[in-house]
Input
Amino acid sequence: MDDARDPQDEPRVRRHKGGFRWDAVEVLRYKDEGSAPFRDVTRQVLFEGTGLPVQLRYFEVAPGGWTTLERHEHVHAVMVIRGSGRCLVGDRAYDLALNDLVSVPPMTWHQFQAAKDEPLGFLCVVTAERDRPQLPGAEEAPVIAKPLRK
Ligand code: MN
Output
């Protein structure tokens, strides 16, 4: 066998390029600017259309940044793979460290925030078919104990 690569392998193995970037994975904006409050978040879709009814995404929140405070019917399964920070799930805030796991149940307010001095990078599994996030209105504000950021 020589070491020529079978072209068929290319879509199956996409190499990590370092720095939480991968071959053939685009670094996308988290959401459209102005569509919801957030700061310094990128999104990469690692797996979709694989035959599994899910998407696996990698989100990275820059130091001091934060995701949108939102809720929806679909659930999140999250694993921290870079840095540290905090999350709000329901009425509790939690410190997050490397390799921590977070489950977000249906219709539960949630938000992620990076530490001030390092990013927070996490994998997040969602169903491919899912509802749109809801943002808190004035009437919901009292039920959210302590948003990390508004
Ligand atoms: Mn969400």
